[in-house]
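2024-03-11 09:14:02 INFO queue: dequeued item Cytochrome c family protein, len=226
2024-03-11 09:14:02 INFO validating residues
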Amino acid sequence: MPFVKRSTLFTLAVLSGVGLLAFAGFVYSGAYDIGADNAHTRPVLSLLQTLRERSIAVRAQQLMLPTMNDPARIRQGAGNYDAMCTGCHLAPGIAETELSKGLYPAPPNLTRESVPPREAFWAIKHGIKASGMPAWGKSMNDESIWNMVAFLQQLPKLDAGGYRDMVAHSEGHSHGGGEAAHHHLDNDERESDEHEMEEAHGGQHAHQMPASASTVPEHGKPGHHH
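2024-03-11 09:14:37 INFO prediction written
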């Protein structure tokens, strides 16, 4: 009987060693296509999704949830979301962006789905490896992250007009991490600023656009053409 047990353990050890060597050989061979334009196989995708979901859920359940329905909290979160998140997670009235279409796994469209508050906080603060989701907690304080989480609870309920109005009444990009403020100037403010700049430079524009820039989007940057 002891001989049978030792034999079984030896066989299992050999099989495990062979399996590890085979896996290492597969990884080193480069046979697996890691390109973002080629989806994972179903088993790999399922494994990664389960790993991500369980990792976040286990850690997020320990968080203390603050009030999520404070209007001031929601407004402040709207400004940061607009400045930091729309390129990947979109906003009401915004079509898919080059970034959102190019990332894999595709970032969730947060205008159509809500994320549980604790899990949203953890993902925003710590980021997610190999997903394109940064760890905003390196530059953003916890209070501002919770404000953004509060806004995310409202985002799927907003239309384009409601979203723009909430962002307009927010503090813009402001979370105490040394960021530069982002403010959307209306036409009168833009004209006033341009006039002041012309006077300061003897009637000349401080920055002149090259003639090849045929389009100028809302924020005054040269058009992005492919």
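2024-03-11 09:14:37 INFO annotate: Confidence is low (pLDDT under 50) at residues 181-195, 197-221.
2024-03-11 09:14:38 INFO item closed
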